[in-house]
From TrEMBL, chain A:
Entry-linked PANTHER family: EXOSOME COMPLEX COMPONENT, EXOSOME COMPLEX COMPONENT RRP41
Origin organism lineage: Eukaryota, Metazoa, Ecdysozoa, Arthropoda, Hexapoda
Domain Exoribonuclease phosphorolytic: 21-150
Protein's name in the database: Exoribonuclease phosphorolytic domain-containing protein
Species this protein is from: Loxostege sticticalis (Beet webworm moth)
Family: Belongs to the RNase PH family.
One Pfam family, short name: RNase_PH
Automatic annotation (TrEMBL), chain B:
Alphabetical list of Gene3D superfamilies matching this protein: GHMP Kinase, N-terminal domain
Keyword Translocase attributed: no
Domain Exoribonuclease phosphorolytic positions: 32-166, 198-275
Family listed: Belongs to the RNase PH family.
Alphabetized InterPro entries for the sequence: ExoRNase_PH_dom1, ExoRNase_PH_dom2, ExoRNase_PH_dom2_sf, Exosome_comp_Rrp42_subfam, PNPase/RNase_PH_dom_sf, Ribosomal_Su5_D2-typ_SF
Pfam families linked to this entry: RNase_PH, RNase_PH_C
Alphabetized UniProt keyword annotations: Cytoplasm, Exosome
Superkingdom in the source lineage: Eukaryota
Subcellular location: Cytoplasm; Nucleus, Nucleolus
Organism of derivation: Loxostege sticticalis
Cellular-component GO terms for this entry: cytoplasm; exosome (RNase complex); nucleolus
Protein name per its UniProtKB record: Ribosomal RNA-processing protein 42
């Protein structure tokens, strides 16, 4: 039974959140001028930048007539973690994350609209405090919207874990670094909440199948909550009516 | 610069502007573009700074580690620069694409900081011959809008100014090994003396004239640029008045040239002098800005913006 101490007797988590509470999300679209779309997203202490280039003509080796090729790169700043990283990208973890990003975002993009083209999505983790992948997906969605790329739905990612309180299972939403390190199960879901479908699901550690449904539904709830936050950010940004990109072109 | 295409006539326009000392964005040849600087933006690092010089965006994080000093310099600490060109800046940097540019910048910084008059490594010594601090200065280039070197050097100096190094509470000697106990309190720490840290100034030769702070467009018009590293002046970085007033001259710690062209020795000398003057005023402005921010920080008046501004 992993992590019985993840919840206090009052039902609060290590960082004082309730089990169904997200960390505070702050985000901004259009932070940079050079990329076609960019976004910055803070989820608690996790800070992520995303940039989108494209759609542009695909490299010959990658070109596909069926639809657009989505090219993702996930890199982590060397100073982002507690212990210094030696390489920002190219290690196994980043490559795996790049593949997961691609899977989640390809599901959201209307790929059939741009055959023989390519979209580059670059995610840079500036500060990692748990859930960097989820923050990366959320930031990349905002950057795609900023770039004006047609999406089927918002792609939102959220993680969930499990704790015990008074003998009852209690799923935890949006797992932070401390809870991740405690060694409990971490279920990461990237979903298109609008359509209710799941684009990517990944689970580490073990979880009894009896509890899978509650944890998954908690994670899906998180995705829906995040979608509302992202949607509001997009609407606010559009209401403001300009980005840094526009200033330069004037 | 990636993705930047200029026609011949556009280049001529820029060149004529430089000749008349009135550049395409309204600056004179010795003007810098506006900068935004914020320190303490990454909480996982001992010190950090983010600098935005027009379109150029640099994030610097300083991490500290305990290491063994080099045998030839037992009383000095170590400092290491690492530059990462993020693919956010241009798709060309994807994968290993930015490594060449990154290593050229990190080598330049390493050379500029090498001199003991530029940065006193003795302040990083803990236990002579046994233990010292090693500073990892990680520079992340998020957007390139020209004049990378100047922006990097300014951001590094700001991040070092912001760096806190914990005090050693106790040291246990066990045979030849030293076991250190560091203070846990984040405020029980010392600041570094970075007043003399060098700043780099790029002088871009466009036609017959040299300009400071070239934009990406101007960089593509120039055949050669000269980079000078000039030591800073300690008095701009301290509020204590009693420090000896003797103005320290800016000393060149490094000179580098980039580009396929060549310059006459006379132009070179003029350019170096121009660079030293520019570095001096940059240094003064940076010192004032950093002191003002620290003052605001002490009074809890500072708002943290990060990238949300």
């Amino acid at each position: 039974m992993p992590g019985p101490d993840l919840l206090s007797s009052q039902g609060l988590r290590l960082d004082g959140r309730r089990p169904n509470e997200l960390r505070r999300i702050k985000c901004k679209l259009g932070v940079f001028t050079q990329p076609d779309g960019s976004a910055y997203l803070e989820q608690g202490n996790t800070k992520v930048l995303a940039a989108v280039y494209g759609p542009h003509q695909a490299a010959k080796s990658k070109s596909s007539t069926d639809g657009v090729v989505v090219n993702c790169q996930y890199s982590t700043a060397t100073f982002s973690t507690g212990e210094r990283k030696n390489r920002p990208r190219g290690d196994r973890k980043s490559q795996e994350m790049s593949m997961h990003l691609r899977q989640a975002l390809t599901a959201a993009i209307k790929t059939e609209l741009y055959p023989r083209s390519q979209i580059d999505i670059y995610v840079e983790v500036l500060q990692a405090d748990g859930g960097a992948y989820c923050a990366g997906v959320n930031a990349a969605t905002l950057a795609l919207i900023d770039a004006g790329i047609p999406l089927r739905a918002y792609a939102c990612a959220c993680s969930a874990s499990m704790a015990w309180r008074a003998g009852q299972p209690e799923p935890l939403l949006d797992v932070g670094h401390v809870e991740e390190a405690a060694g409990g199960v971490v279920l990461t879901v990237a979903a298109l909440p609008n359509t209710g479908s799941i684009a990517l699901l990944e689970m580490s550690h073990r979880l009894h199948m009896d509890y899978f449904d509650v944890v998954l539904s908690r994670a899906m709830q998180g995705c829906r909550d995040i979608e509302i936050i992202l949607d509001r950010a997009v609407r606010d940004h559009l209401a403001e009516g300009w980005t840094k990109q526009d200033i330069v072109t004037i | 610069m990636a993705g930047l295409l200029l026609s011949e006539t556009e280049k001529v326009f820029i060149l004529h502007g430089v000749q008349d000392d009135y550049r395409s964005d309204g600056r004179s040849n010795i003007d810098y573009r506006p900068m935004e600087l914020e320190t303490d933006v990454v909480s996982h690092a001992s010190g950090s700074a983010r600098l935005r010089l027009a379109n150029t965006d640099i994030l610097v994080g300083v991490k500290t580690e305990i290491d063994v000093p080099k045998p030839d310099k037992p009383d000095s600490g170590r400092i290491e620069f690492f530059v990462d060109c993020s693919a956010n800046a241009t798709p060309e940097f994807e994968g290993r694409g930015g490594e060449q540019l990154a290593s050229s910048i990190s080598n330049l910084m390493q050379r500029a900081y090498h001199s003991s008059q530029a940065f006193n490594l003795k302040q990083l010594c803990i236990f002579e011959g046994k233990q010292c601090w090693k500073l990892y200065i990680d520079i992340l280039i998020l957007e390139c809008g020209g004049n990378l070197c100047d922006a990097v050097s300014l951001a590094v100096k700001a991040a070092l100014f912001n760096t806190r190094i914990p005090f050693v509470k106790a040291a246990l000697m066990d045979g030849g090994n030293v076991d250190l106990q560091l203070s846990d309190d984040p405020y029980d720490s010392k600041l570094l003396d970075v007043g003399s840290a060098p700043l780099l100034v790029t002088l871009c030769k466009i036609g017959e004239n040299c300009v400071v702070d070239p934009s990406a467009e101007e960089e593509s018009c120039s055949v050669i640029s000269l980079i000078v590293g000039v030591t800073g002046n300690r008095q701009y970085y301290t509020q204590e008045e009693e420090t000896d007033k003797k103005t320290m001259e800016g000393k060149c710690t490094t000179i580098a040239m980039h580009g396929p062209g060549s310059v006459a020795p006379k132009t070179l000398k003029e350019a170096i002098n121009q660079g030293i003057i520019a570095a001096k005023s940059l240094d003064e402005a940076l010192g004032q800005a950093l002191l003002r921010e620290r003052q605001e920080n002490i009074g809890f008046k500072k708002h943290s913006y990060g990238f949300l501004k």
